[in-house]
Amino acid sequence: MDLMEKLEPIIIFITIIIGLFSSNIHIISCYSENLINIFLCLMLLGVFLEIPINNIKKSFKNANFTIASLIINFLWTPLFGYFLGSLFLNGNIDVWIGFFMMILTPCTDWYLVFTKIAKGDLTLSLSILPINLVLQIILLPIYLVIFFSSGNTMEYAQLLYSLLIVIVIPFVLAQIIKFILNNDLKEKVTDLFSDLEIWFLALAVFCIFASQGELLSANLDSVITIFFPLIIFFIVNIILDLIVAKKINFTYSEYASLTMITLARNSPLALAIAINSFQGHELITIALVIGPLIELPVLYIVSKFCLWVKSYELIYH
Fold first, then answer.
1. Which letter does DSSP use for residue 60 in this model?
2. Distances in Å between the alpha carbon of 230 and those of 67, 157, 233, 287?
3. Which of 13, 119, 198, 317 would bridge 251 by S-S if both were Cys, CB 3.0 to 4.6 A apart?
4. At what angle do helices 93-104 and 220-248 cross, to 10 degrees?
5. How many C-beta atoms surround the C-beta of residue 163 within 10 A?
């Protein structure tokens, strides 16, 4: 592990703190939101440059992995998330809805970065992305209606726009770069973006908290109420992923990928949905804003836990 990997959690924590303080600076809080997607795109460009696109088709043949991840993400998670919300957040329906939206939407961007840290199978993790995207678009409003009898509708154009900007553009650009550059230049560009991934991630985190820090500060009580069910969700799913991986005889890289796919939640994307679909319900937005505050450090810790599992051969291969 190089020095930058060791400093990664410290960099993220410092970035969160600086972002929260910077939210008091008007010019930063006003414009930082517009920069979130730019830094996410740059970060993902580096990730996509490292992925051998020719091998992606092989990942779709891994039926056990696909079925396990979909059952955990879209059957177990909404039921467990609703149970946790009813247990801890029943007194505040908006916070409950925000928590539920965050729990139900698997990550579509930086889970790949933490999969890389945990030495999971990036190609396999990327292959499941289109399925997760389609199912969360379809199932999120359905589950909201089933569990909360909500009559609100989402702005699908915003969701599609976010997908285009954050996923499609950097993915296509990465393939173009790999196609037009010779092997030496391609390797240098890939190494450069690989080294800069943590900084792009840190800048994206900074912009998220700088743009929403004031709203967060005004509702700190929401942080306390949502903290416990979210931590319980992470702990239970970490154990569940390990049990499932051992039962199905997953390789270590499959286990690490499953863990990140089923733990990482899509707070930035869900936030865009909430802002456009639940206008006037600020606490729903608050619940989603504080998600990365808890999620990012947890994902880093979990990535190291996965490496610990590998070192003690709790998952073989």
1. T
2. 24, 29, 5, 11
3. 317
4. 30
5. 17
Query: Which tokens hold the place of 88?
Result: 């801890």
Indicate if the pLDDT at residue 80 is higher than 80. Answer: yes
- Confidence label for 156 from pLDDT (cuts 50, 70 and 90): low
User: Which amino acid appears at position 99 of this protein?
Assistant: F
Residue 79, both tokens: 């039921």
Q: Helix (H, G, I), strand (E, B), or coil: what is residue 152?
A: coil
Contacts of 205 (CB under 8 A, 6+ apart): 12, 15, 16, 19, 292, 296
Taking CA atoms, 93 is separated from 11, 81, 88, 187, 222, in Å, by 34, 14, 11, 51, 12
Report the distance separating Cα 22 and Cα 210, nearest Å: 5
pTM reported for the whole predicted model? 0.75
Picking from 134, 130, 167, 109, the residue whose alpha carbon sits closest to that of residue 56 is: 130
Give tens-digit pLDDT for 214-252. 777 777 777 788 889 999 999 999 999 999 999 999 999
Alpha helix (H) residue ranges in 23-167: 26-31, 36-49, 56-59, 63-71, 77-88, 93-104, 111-117, 122-127, 129-148, 156-163
